[in-house]
Write a structure and sequence with these properties.
mainly alpha, 2 domains, elongated
Amino acid sequence: MNKEEILSRSRNELKNADLVEMQTNYQAGNIAGRVGATICVLLSVIARIFTDEYIVSPWIIYFSILGTNWLVRFIKLKRKTDLLVSLLFIALAFILFIVQVKQLMGASV
């Protein structure tokens, strides 16, 4: 197998995706996730200081995004650990959704 055949196979496997672009997208997603978590923490702390209540709505969105991300990883890579992590994040989002509905209905949680 010569150099051109190896390059051709590699392009076909990656579907002509640029490795630098793929790595940049991965890093951007990683940083965006950390920024999202930081914003959720800040909103929660600020709400607690001013209202003596916890707000969970940002966390519902955050855990939904993480759950979807890990679910897509599972679908693409077929790793059972990815499915487990996905289900954990989706369960957290669902539990917090129930807490949010109860808070909106006036029940103290």
